[in-house]
Specification:
about 900 residues; mainly beta; 6-stranded mixed sheet; 6 helices; about 40% strand
């Protein structure tokens, strides 16, 4: 303790001498070698030690420390040693080094510190639980201010040396251990060892639990008051149960009620034994064990459906695959794996099979082996059992009448059949008779045939019906036999319409087609016209025809019964004008040519689809217009006129034929608009008188943008300096800026944009007033009347008066500079308009770093305006 007192005295004397002597006379010196003893290392004052204060001599701050003993607890920058973190007593050396300078006695000094051994003070209670494998004896010191040095020796109650890891699994009781640390020369070890008492507390025992399996649908009549303790063996008494439906205090459950209200499932019940309390706390945690009561349910598949996919034809037997899809009935079936047992019975045998499947949302699909379906006939697939894989077998599911039929159909046969076809005219339907089809069974069939010869067609279809060997006729459409001459007909395929079973065929017949006028290239063309205009009709593609007669009808908005007219053909075309009396209405009208006759041969045809739709358009009504008003600042264009849209065209005179572009800038005057109907008919023009209003930009009075900032001028003050103080509106940008309120404070060197607004026309001025504001236009009277220099500040971070600044000086003296010195004449801070605040730190000092201490400082203000002399004064810094 004497040494500690001497060390403190040395530190005090060091700082007194350091303060009294000139700084340069002791700078750069490391002090002299010093030995220090710290025998009471557990003292809180030794938690962190400033090594510089322990050196003898006059060491200078700012040097560098090295940890010669590699304690790894020294901050080599600050020289702070965290001595209580060193894990054992002993002698530790540290070196302090400063740069060599003329006049220094030494540049290095060694500090040797002797740290006494410390055995520690154990915590009041060391009570581990017996469910741990190992207890570290050093845990007995947890919670103390400083743990013991780690180089000591543990002995048990019998005096035997033992490791710090104490096996406590299954133990119970109190055990004595002693911890001894070796002494350090030079320090008297008053307490070389300590005794630690370890009390091992027995962990609670919840016992072993067994699960219970029941069929909820049939087995719960005797489980309406079930005692949960029957699920345990070897448990401590007095524990508590938790789980669904428990009735206290006897821990009974009504499993029948649980099943009726919550359904089938696994219900977990947990038995918890509370840990004992020792010395006001619980060394052990509570222990629990769980048992599961499984309540199964019989699943009812009544109403379920089985669909086997799919029926096949006998030609597919070798390659067919089969799927069975089971869909639940009204009862919900849980998702998961099931084992399905089913039988397949057919024309000759029955097989039984079990498949593992997965139900998903009440549906499951599984394959059927093709070996069960190897001949023509009907096969019955029937499910006899369905069992869930997770089911433990205490419940039986209900499966009843769950089956489907799969058919293997025979293929149709047209062998020995013949075709009979009477001659027809060109483009008439041909009626085909089938005879001799004795091998076809009753039913409906689709046939595929092809044509060759004068007419060619492939893969054409028709339908026939067979009743007791008699086959119905089928029709070959006239469109397929449009060319005259001989055409061969061959049936190449036959398909059963119900079973879709198919077979090839080769049944041949012949059609004789007599020639008609060729209408292949006939075309009628009629354009759209406005009401009361002549409507010509052109018929083209007439080929070699010279003299024809046509019949036509008119339908739609106009109608007329059959009209006939004779026409001469020139260059394969003929034309005529529809009589005006037949086209009296606007709207869509259709002309259909119903017959074309060659007048030279008298052969006629009724062409299909020889027609054209045309439109008789109405003349639209002239648009309704009104006078329109715009602001010049809006830069309105023709696109802004009403009405607008692609159907409207605007003109700048009555006689103009070229419409104005949508981007044309509007000027005051007369504009004309016409509307074009969808059919192209154009209305008469309508007049709209356009007026484009403008308001002059506001004008600023001379020097109206100059203010003195100490008066806190606002936008209202700027408005008052214009010729439109009541109506001018200000923005912070010329385009897309923010509108500023009258109370907005003006900013120095900021630019503002003013527009005049006319309440008569509701228009802003097209031109803008640009004002760049200055807040330094202050008179001498204002300077001396309002100028104030504070005499102190408190930079303590409380948000009040944390920096030193001179209010409004940047407005009064925009070029000012502020210098602050300490009492030794050292410059601490230089400020100006861009750096107005001093935060109490030595930002401009060349010899002093860090935070300026409390005390008196001196300022010099250079006004740099109107030849005003600098002003000196003092201020007080108080943190």
């Amino acid at each position: 303790m004497v040494k500690n007192y001497l060390v403190a005295l040395k530190i005090l004397l060091f700082f007194i001498v350091l303060f009294l002597l000139p700084s340069q006379s002791i700078a750069q010196c490391a002090g002299i070698d010093t030995d220090v003893k710290i025998c009471d290392i557990e003292n809180p004052v030794h938690e962190s030690i400033n090594l510089l204060g322990l050196l003898d001599g006059n060491p200078t701050a700012g040097g560098k420390w090295t940890d010669d003993s590699n304690t790894q607890e020294l901050d080599t920058i600050t020289g702070i040693l965290y001595a209580q973190n060193i894990s054992r007593g002993g002698v530790y050396q540290f070196t302090y080094t400063v740069p060599a300078t003329t006049g220094c006695v030494s540049t290095t000094a060694k500090l040797r510190i002797t740290i006494g051994a410390y055995a520690g003070v154990p915590a009041p209670y060391a009570t581990p639980c017996s469910d741990r494998e190992i207890y570290n004896l050093f845990e007995a010191f947890n919670g103390t201010v400083m743990g013991p040095h780690k180089n000591g020796t543990w002995t048990n109650g019998a005096g035997q040396i033992v490791p710090s890891g104490f096996p406590i699994k299954g133990l119970q009781g109190t055990f004595k251990f002693t911890y001894t640390v070796p002494p350090v020369p030079g320090c008297i070890l008053l307490i070389p060892s300590v005794t630690v008492w370890i009390t091992v507390v027995r962990a609670p025992e919840p016992g072993n639990a067994k699960d219970l399996l029941l069929c909820g649908s049939t087995d719960l009549a005797t489980y309406t008051n079930f005692d949960l303790h029957g699920l345990l063996v070897g448990q401590d008494p007095g524990g508590e149960w938790s789980g669904p439906g428990i009735v206290a205090p006897g821990y009974k459950v009504n499993l029948q009620k649980i099943f009726d209200t919550q359904g089938a499932g696994d219900y977990e019940y947990t038995y918890t034994v509370l840990a004992p309390t020792l010395n006001g706390h619980r060394p052990c945690s509570n222990k629990s064990v769980s048992a599961v009561i499984t309540l199964e349910k019989s699943l009812d598949f009544t109403g379920a459906t089985l669909v086997v996919d799919s029926d096949i034809c006998e030609t597919e037997i070798a390659s067919a695959t089969y799927l069975a899809t089971l869909t639940r009935g009204p009862e919900v079936i849980p998702n998961g794996k099931y084992n399905i047992t089913y039988t397949i019975s057919g024309p000759t045998a029955t097989s039984v099979k079990t498949e593992s499947v997965i139900f998903n949302n009440g549906v499951v699909t599984f394959p059927l082996e093709a070996v069960n379906f190897q001949e023509v006939g009907a096969f019955k697939v029937e499910i006899t059992s369905i069992v869930a894989e997770w089911n433990k077998g205490v419940c039986k599911n209900i499966v009843d009448n769950l089956s489907d039929i799969l058919n293997v159909y025979p293929i149709p046969n047209l062998d020995s059949a013949k075709l009979k076809i009477d001659p027809i005219c060109q483009k008439e339907n041909a009626v085909v008779q089938i005879t001799g089809a004795s091998k076809l069974l009753n039913g409906t069939y689709d046939i595929v045939y092809k044509l060759s010869g004068a007419n060619i067609a492939n893969a054409q279809g028709a339908s026939i019906t067979v009743v007791n060997g008699v086959v119905s006729d089928f029709i070959i459409p006239a469109a397929l036999i449009s060319k005259d001459g001989n055409t061969s007909v061959v049936i190449t395929k036959i398909i059963n319409s119900v079973t879709k079973c198919t077979n090839t065929a080769n049944v041949i017949g012949n059609i004789v087609v007599k020639p008609l006028p060729n209408a292949t290239n006939f075309k009628v063309q009629i354009d759209d016209f406005c009401l009361n205009e002549p409507v010509p009709v052109t018929i083209s593609g007439l080929g070699t025809l010279k003299d024809i007669a046509i019949s036509y009808t008119i339908s739609g908005s106009n109608s007329a019964t059959t009209q006939t007219i004779n026409l001469l053909v020139t260059n394969v075309k003929a034309s005529f004008i529809i009589p005006q009396n037949l086209l009296l209405n606007t709207g869509t009208t259709r002309l259909t040519i119903t017959k074309v006759t060659n007048n030279e041969t008298t052969c006629g045809i009724a062409p299909t689809g020889l027609l054209d739709d045309f439109l008789i358009n109405a003349i639209p009504t002239a648009p309704t217009t009104n006078p329109q008003f715009f602001c010049k600042s809006d830069e309105a264009t023709v696109a802004n006129l009403v009405p607008n849209g692609t159907q409207y065209k605007w003109y700048d005179s009555v006689t103009a034929t070229t419409p104005l572009a949508a981007s044309t800038i509007l000027v005051s005057g007369n504009y004309y608009v016409k509307v074009t109907a969808p059919g192209g008919c154009v209305s008469q023009e309508s007049l709209s008188v356009i007026t484009v209003n403008d308001t002059p930009a506001p004008v600023l009075i001379p020097k109206g943008q100059d203010f003195c900032g100490i008066n806190n001028p606002t936008i209202a003050d700027l408005s008052n300096n214009t010729n439109a103080s009541a109506s001018v509106v200000w923005y912070d940008a010329p385009d897309n800026g923010n509108q500023l309120t009258k109370a907005t404070l003006l900013e120095d060197n900021a630019t503002y944009y003013g527009f005049d607004f006319s309440s008569t026309t509701n228009c802003f001025s097209n031109d803008v007033l640009i004002a760049k504001v200055s807040l330094t236009n202050c008179t001498n009277e204002e300077e001396y009347a309002d100028f104030f220099i504070p005499d102190g500040f408190s930079p303590n971070g409380d948000g009040t008066n944390d920096t030193y600044t001179i209010p409004d000086i940047d407005f009064l003296y925009p070029d000012y500079t502020l210098e602050i010195y300490n009492r030794y004449g050292n410059l601490m801070f230089t400020g100006n308009k861009n750096k107005p605040e001093w935060d109490g730190k030595n930002s401009d000092s060349k010899v002093i770093d860090g935070v300026a201490p409390n005390g008196v400082y001196f300022y010099v203000v250079h006004f740099n305006k109107d030849n005003r002399s600098p002003l000196q004064g003092r201020l007080y810094l108080n943190r």
